[in-house]
Amino acid sequence: MIERVCLRRRLASSTYHPSSPLEGNDLSQETLADQKIAVFGGNSPSLDDVCRHVASKENEKGSLPFFVMSIPRLQQAIKQWSERMIRVKPFYSLRCNADPVLCRLLADHPNEMFNFEAQDAHLLEKALDLVPPDRILYSNPCLTRKALKHADEVQVGTIIIESERDLLNAISYAPNAKLLIRVCMMSYLNCFSNDVETRFGCSFQEARDILLIASELRGKVIGISFNMDANANPSLYYKALRSVKELMDEGERVGLTMRTICLGGGFDGEKRNDFNELSDIINDSMDSLFPSSIDFICTPGRFFASPAFNLCTTVIAKRSTEAQVLTNDDFDSGFGFIYQINEGIYGSFGCRLDNCNPKCRPLDSLPHHFEQFPAKILGPNVDGTDVAQPLTFLPQLSIGEWLVWDQMGAYSMPYDGETPQLPVYYYDSKKAWDDRHSPKNPLKRIDSDSGLGSDAGSEPPSDSEDWGDDEDQENLSPYFHRFFHQIQRQF
C-alpha cells in the first residue's frame, strides 16, 4: 500500500481562485514564501466560508482534497501563547508541519519570538533557510557522528543529547554547540504515555552521570530537556520541574553553568481552554522553583499548526450496514453508513499515528432536525488500516458531498519535498496583512534563489552514515534497538 502512495503524481502548487470573491468581500492576491495568499478586505470570512468557496471551484476540476490555511487563526494562537506563556520561548517543531507560509510567518514574527526545532538533516536545512543557526534547536534522536559534524559545520546553536555516548560525540564533533540533556520524564513520574517521543531520554541517574562527565571534560551542558504527554494531568508539571531543579542544582555543584530548561512539546492545539489552566500551573511552578535568570524554552508544534488548517475531502463511495456493526453495541437498532473518501491513512490521515484524532462534519451546514446515523469513514485504499474516523454520527450523505476536517494542521503534511502533497489555499484579512507589512514592521522577504517553498536547491546531507568511510563507521545498533523497543511498547 505504501508503494501506491509513493507513485502518486505531485500536485500543482495551489493558487486561490481570484475570479469569484466571497460575497461582500473585496479580494486581492498577495505573495508570501512563494505562495499566493487571498487577502480579504472588510470582514474576514470564516474558515468554513473559504472552504466552501474553494470546494465550489474544485467541483469544476474533479473534486480533489485540499487544505485551507487561516492566517487569522494562526495569529490567534500566537496571541494566546504570548499572553499566557511570557517566560517560555517557543522553538517551533518543524516535524509537525513545515508549511512554507506557516514557517515564514513564525520566523518573521516581531522580536524574534519564534525559533525552530529540527529533528533531522532535511529539517535542519529548512530551519537554516528561516533563521540564523543560533536560533535552532537540533533534537535528532539518532545523533550519529555525521549528524553532529553537519550541525557543527552550520554552527547550530543548541543540541539535545540523551546518553554518555552522545555527550562524548558532541564534544568531539560539535564542540561549539551548547548541550541539553533529555531525560525520560514520563517514566520517572510512572505515567503511561502513547506518545513515543515522551519515552525518549535517559534516566535521572544517567543524567547525573552525564553531568559529572561533562564537568570533567568541560562539555558545554547548559540545561535539561524533557517531554510531557499532551494528555498528562497539568499538575504533573510541578513535579516534573521540581525534579529538574534537582538536576540543575547537581550540574551547578559539579561546576557547570546550568541556565536553560526545555519543556518539550505536549501543548495541544485543540484544547484551547485547557491551555489556560496548564499555563497557570507552569508559570506558578517556574516562578516558585527557579530564579529569573533561568531561561525556559519549549518545542510546540500542534498548538500553532493544528488550528490553522482545515482539510476538505469528498465522499467517493458509500454503503449501508447495521448500526450495531459500527457502534459495537448489540442494543443499537437501525442502520448506519460506511463512507469512503478521497484521502486516507497513507496521506493526510497518517496524523492518526501521531496521536491525532481527526473529526469530520458536512461542509454544507444542515438543519439540526436532520436524523443522525452512525458512520465510519474509510480512506481510498481497501485495507483494514485505512480508516480516517472509526465512528461518528452524520446525516445521510450522498456521493460527491464534501466533508470538512477541523484542526488538521499537525502531522498531516509531508516535509521531505518528495512525497506528494495536497494543495493548500491560504487566506488573511487585509487589516492584519497591512499591519504586518507596515513600515514599522516590515516583512522579511525571501531571496528568490533560496529555494524555500520550492524544489530548488541542493539535497541536504543524509542522516545515515557513509559506511564506505572507515573513519566514520559507527555501530548504530543501540539506536535501532532503542527505537524498536519504544515502538514495540507503543503497540
From TrEMBL:
Instruction: Output compositional bias ranges, type Basic and acidic residues.
Output: 434-448
What are this entry's molecular-function GO terms? catalytic activity
Show the Gene3D superfamilies listed in the entry.
Answer: Alanine racemase, Lyase, Ornithine Decarboxylase, Chain A, domain 1
What name does UniProt use for this protein? Ornithine decarboxylase
Specify the species: Mesorhabditis belari
Which Gene Ontology BP annotations are present? polyamine biosynthetic process
- Where does the record place Low complexity bias? 449-458
| Tree of life domain | Eukaryota
SUPFAM superfamilies recorded: Alanine racemase C-terminal domain-like, PLP-binding barrel
